[in-house]
Design brief:
Layout: E1 12-20, E2 36-50, E3 58-60, E4 71-73, E5 76-90, H1 115-134, E6 138-147, H2 151-157, H3 174-182, H4 185-192, E7 196-204
Antiparallel strand pairs: 1-6, 1-7, 2-5, 3-4
Length: 212
């Protein structure tokens, strides 16, 4: 994300991808890098974490549009967290160490609200991006979600609201189930015998995201 772009409330697109065949068996933990960040750009914010009451959380996901937001049956506890601008980190964050990275990549998509253009163009761009970032031999792009803070944008563009709590998208059970859901059984079984990654790619559509 270019820091020169005006900071505005921005809808954004996330797509989920399965990258397979990457060799992870010989990966050795690296020493913690001596990382420096631009603390002048750091902010403090209260993030909602799942409470420790032992109750099983339940999520009722929202429907895209201006309707009711997601509903949860769970107890959340706010915690004050320092959030630094990772664009100023030296060395930059990486998939191997931090589990995420920042990449500037222009897109040929003219309208991210056009599902046909997203599938026809952006999925191919995302596949190329993941292959370059991971060295994998196969990528399956299987989902995309548009989100926006503004209720009017959500209603007009039929998109969902941002998540307002810290969460994981997958568990040890649901991650392999995704392969079974997406692929024929023989192919899913073969891929599960090899290393695979599930990677979310995020893109702000009109500028850097500065709000939930």
């Amino acid at each position: 994300m270019d820091p020169s772009i005006p900071k505005i409330l921005a809808p954004r697109l996330t797509s989920a991808n399965i990258a397979t065949s990457r060799s992870l068996t010989d990966h050795k933990p690296m020493a913690e890098p001596d990382r420096k960040s631009n603390h002048a750009e750091a902010v403090q914010a209260r993030l909602n974490f799942l409470g420790a009451d032992g109750a099983r959380p339940v999520l009722y996901a929202s429907v895209a549009g201006g309707g009711p937001a997601s509903r949860q049956e769970a107890a959340y506890e706010p915690h004050l967290v320092t959030i630094a601008d990772a664009r100023g980190a030296v060395p930059p964050p990486s998939l191997d160490d931090e589990g995420f990275c920042l990449i500037q990549r222009p897109s040929a998509v003219g309208d991210f609200f056009d599902p046909d253009e997203v599938v026809g163009t952006y999925h191919r761009e995302t596949e190329t991006l993941i292959k370059e970032a991971t060295g994998t031999s196969k990528v399956i792009v299987f989902d995309q979600t548009l989100r926006a803070d503004d209720q009017g944008i959500r209603a007009e563009r039929t998109v969902r609201e941002p998540a307002w709590f810290v969460h994981n998208d997958y568990t040890r059970r649901s991650a392999p189930q995704r392969l079974w859901d997406l692929l024929p059984a023989p192919e899913a079984e073969a891929l599960l015998a090899r290393p695979y990654l599930i990677i979310n790619t995020w893109r702000p559509l009109t500028g850097p995201v500065v709000s939930t």
